[in-house]
Specification:
The chain is α/β, with parallel strands linked by helices. The chain has helices at residues 27-39, 53-60, 74-84, 121-132, 146-155, and strands at residues 4-9, 12-17, 20-24, 42-47, 64-71, 90-93, 105-110, 135-143. A five-stranded parallel sheet has the order 6-5-4-7-8, sandwiched between helices. The protein has a three-stranded antiparallel sheet with strand order 1-2-3, covered by helices on one side.
């Protein structure tokens, strides 16, 4: 069972899962999440809940109809509820890679690898392949560090 906690330092929140720093809400992270949320539309699936940052901005986007997050660890949701007092959008507990549904999405958003580096390119590829199976025709995939990951793929 995963150990999950959100620690606060100098006005920012840091999500730790099993003693690994997983996500934070520093200004650059907020801007990156806002930019992805601005581009999204229709029915959106988010792989991982994290701190709920992107979900909040997706719900503020008038082009977005619905937001569903697939979160592997129920404790992440409980910790976010404890710290923030609410959860944004719908959440299903489960593994994104095992998620099966007949529902299709206009956008799939991912941020479920540890870092933007060649060391995690296989994780990015796995995410992208799974995301493709959940998209409507003409749908879009968005991801943290996607431009850099695509650059790394071209270099490979």
């Amino acid at each position: 069972m995963a150990e999950v906690e959100i620690l606060q330092q100098k006005g920012y929140n840091f999500l730790w899962i099993d003693d690994k720093l997983w996500m934070w809400d520093v200004p650059q992270e907020i801007e990156d999440q806002k930019e992805i949320a601005r581009q999204a539309y229709g029915d959106v699936l988010v792989a991982g809940y994290g701190l709920g940052i992107i979900q909040q901005y997706l719900l503020e986007n008038k082009k977005v109809n619905s937001v569903l997050s697939i979160e592997k660890f129920e404790k992440v949701i409980k910790e976010c509820e404890r710290v923030y007092g609410k959860i944004y959008g719908e959440v299903e507990i489960g593994d994104f890679y095992e998620y099966n549904t007949s529902r299709e999405f206009d956008c799939v958003i991912g941020d479920i690898w540890e870092d933007q580096s060649l060391n995690f390119i296989e994780d990015y590829i796995k995410f992208k392949e799974k995301a493709k199976t959940l998209l409507k025709g003409g749908g879009k995939i968005f991801a943290w560090g996607m431009d850099y990951m695509e650059y790394l793929l071209k270099r490979k």
